[in-house]
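Discussion board: Methods & Data

I've been asked by a reviewer to show the raw model output for two of the constructs in my manuscript, not just the figures. I'm not sure how much to include, so I'm pasting the format here to get opinions. Each protein appears as its amino acid sequence followed by a line of discrete structure tokens. Is this the kind of thing reviewers expect to see in a supplement, or should I convert it first? Here is construct A:
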Amino acid sequence: MSQVHVIDHPMIQHKLSIMRDKETGSKDFRQLLEEISLLMGYEITRDIPLMDKEIETPICKMTAKKVSGRKLAIVPILRAGMGMVEGLHTLVPVAKVGHIGLYRDEKTHEPVVYYCKLPEDIQERLVIVTDPMLATGGSSCDALKMLKERGCTNIRLMCLVAAPEGIARVQAEHPDVDIYVAAVDDHLNEDAYIVPGLGDAGDRIFGTK
């Protein structure tokens, strides 16, 4: 069974509370999401292996630590997942970025695929899938399935807020994928929105509602 990592650093919780406030505008919402994504990125990449490298400081030679060359890919689920890319890219500028386009059918609440573009060597990379909201888990499960069909074996799911229902579905369908979140909320309402949540993340990021 996969693990759920709740990254509850005080600054993340503080910024998330501002994002939840319905009075927070799109500009601040986007900036806060980017900042939280950067902070969460430290934890999601914590176990990336290091290697020794000989360097010379202004004082002397030494054996220093550097990332061992493991390739990383960031794959946002469009469109809201785009809001988390810049924070991770700031932390790991050399990471490649793929895109998976999914939208939720308003009647069935199930995801519909409309776009998929990934790095050619995606199967060789540690893949971080980003989506601010893990609600029903449908979009995330479909995205993870698409990645596995393309040979990916090392995948992590990074969300901002999750519902227990979404976590349970991802763990049931993809028990090998760890989930990283800033908060686990109470439940889904009849419209499949997370409660208390923060509304529609895509609309709040891009000011479309």
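Construct B, same format:
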Amino acid sequence: MRINGSHHIFRKAGVEEKINIQKDGNKAKPYQIKQIRKIFLSYHLGREL
């Protein structure tokens, strides 16, 4: 994770895309959720249970 102003930028090894979230109170914006969901589904992330 890296913070650039009000943006939080996340990277993960093996994932080309960066996740860039602008802090807006305690809620992510709808387009940010869609982008993150697309990355999770594309790379099959979150299935290490």
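Answer (T.O., handling editor elsewhere):
This is acceptable in a supplement if you add a one-line summary per construct. For B, something like: The helical segments are 30-42.
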